[in-house]
Write a structure and sequence with these properties.
Elements lengths: L1 H10 L2 H4 L13 E13 L2 E6 L2 E6 L12 E8 L7 E9 L4 E3 L5
Parallel strand pairs: 3-5
Antiparallel strand pairs: 1-2, 1-4, 2-3, 4-5, 5-6
Length: 107
């Protein structure tokens, strides 16, 4: 079992290993890093990310979609503090292969 855990940690990029917050615990008004699987593309600049604890909307736009359904990613960004559904305004997204996609918007 230890060997399996070690292999999984090696497969996750260093950026993604730092302070991962379960989606269910991503609190409004905070910067977080979450990881999971892209569950659904909601529109041209928003997708739904899912982990074992829940789901959250991730805004990457405007008019830009760097992820595909089923892709494993980590996302670093700000959890919107509005009253609507929880949403992360992504500052960066790291793919399973370590490629980092950054987003220019600041909220």
């Amino acid at each position: 079992m230890f060997l399996t855990a070690a292999i999984v940690l090696v497969a996750i990029p260093a950026h993604a290993q730092k302070d991962i917050t379960p989606i269910a615990q991503a609190e409004r008004g905070n910067m977080v890093t979450v990881q999971g699987t892209v569950a659904r593309i909601l529109d041209e600049d928003t997708f739904r990310l899912s982990d074992g604890s829940g789901e959250i909307r991730v805004y990457v736009g405007p008019h830009f979609m760097p992820a595909v359904v089923g892709e494993a990613v980590s996302v670093h960004g700000f959890v919107d503090d509005d009253l609507g559904p929880r949403e992360i305004y992504a500052r960066s997204m790291t793919r399973a292969d370590g490629e980092v996609v950054t987003f220019d918007h600041r909220y």
